[in-house]
Amino acid sequence: MKLLRHGAFGKEKPGILDQNGSIRDLSEHLPDINGETISENSLKKISSIDLSSLPIVSDDTRLGACVGNVGKFLCIGLNYSDHAAESGMAVPSEPILFSKATSAIVGPNDNIEIPRNSVETDWEVELGIIIGKKAKYINENDADDYIAGYCLVNDVSEREFQLKKEGQWTKGKSCDTFGPTGPYLVTKDEIADVQKLKMYLDVNGQRMQDGSTNTMIFSARYIVYYLSQFMSLNPGDIIATGTPPGVGGGMKPPVFLKAGDKMKLGIEGLGEQNQVCIQG
């Protein structure tokens, strides 16, 4: 299933994509797509609904982030071997963890706001993991049982804030609009092998990132297992799992986003995002 949220920011309603690519409204069956409604039992109930009986949503309706009321937005850095090489950094022996503020989360096609005083706003197409049930001290072999599905994330980053100012990465990752998520929560049964998905990102029609999840250093399963050793992962939490090469900061000379730039990105089976950069 491809679950989604549609409507004005802060007033999104639950929806689902039918076999013809039309959006159907799920409001009569559940209040939202969030941690409380993506349990295994809930997903089974949704899968039994006759989608043809649901109202069709207009194609021009805004899509919100595919999960609402996110508790934690966790991210893994330098998780692609080819991206680590591009960045001139050593391949990590353990996952590098940082967080994005949940206030950064926006819809897949919402505008990206270039922060005031920013000179190095960058892009990162990433696979997102969406947790379906509480995970704490789990075994790696059981990790799939705790995943509700996957989504597309653009881990927008301000490199000067992230790397050149004192402190941790969080402030360069958490600016408003820096977390476009969706368009869909794609349930794990629809993805044959999450470690073999093509991914790309274009800026102004030029291909910048062209990679695959098969170069991830730490797999989706391992990441869920690993993080559960340090904290509880709760239903609705999102984990962004790193980006392939082609980010602006890795180019020679570096290339960064400016107002008016347009981004288009996607991951095989998970849909596509389109964003316009505006000045904050």
Give an account of the 3D structure:
This protein is α+β, with helices and mostly antiparallel strands and 280 residues long. It has five helices and 19 strands. It has helices at residues 40-47, 81-87, 159-164, 170-173, 220-228; strands at 2-6, 13-17, 23-25, 56-57, 73-77, 96-99, 105-106, 112-114, 121-122, 125-131, 147-154, 157-158, 179-180, 185-187, 198-203, 206-212, 238-240, 262-267, 271-279. It has a ten-stranded mixed beta sheet, covered by helices on one side. A five-stranded mixed beta sheet has the order 8-19-18-15-16, with no helix packed on it. The mean pLDDT is 96.
What structural class results from the helix and strand content?
alpha+beta
Q: What is the radius of gyration?
A: 18 Å
Give the low-confidence spans. none
Number of E strands: 19
Order of helices and strands: EEEHEEHEEEEEEEHHEEEEHEEE
Most strands sheet: 10 strands, mixed
The first-to-last residue Cα distance is 36 Å
- Average pLDDT works out at 96
Q: Strands of the largest sheet, in order across it?
A: 4-3-2-1-14-11-10-17-5-6
The rough form would be described as: globular
* Fraction of residues in helix: 10-25%
**Count of helices?**
5
Strand content: 25-35%
What descriptive keywords fit this protein?
280 residues, alpha+beta, five-stranded mixed β-sheet, 5 helices
What's the helix and strand layout?
Elements: E1 2-6, E2 13-17, E3 23-25, H1 40-47, E4 56-57, E5 73-77, H2 81-87, E6 96-99, E7 105-106, E8 112-114, E9 121-122, E10 125-131, E11 147-154, E12 157-158, H3 159-164, H4 170-173, E13 179-180, E14 185-187, E15 198-203, E16 206-212, H5 220-228, E17 238-240, E18 262-267, E19 271-279
Parallel strand pairs: 5-17, 7-13, 8-19
Antiparallel strand pairs: 1-2, 1-14, 2-3, 3-4, 5-6, 9-12, 10-11, 10-17, 11-14, 15-16, 15-18, 18-19
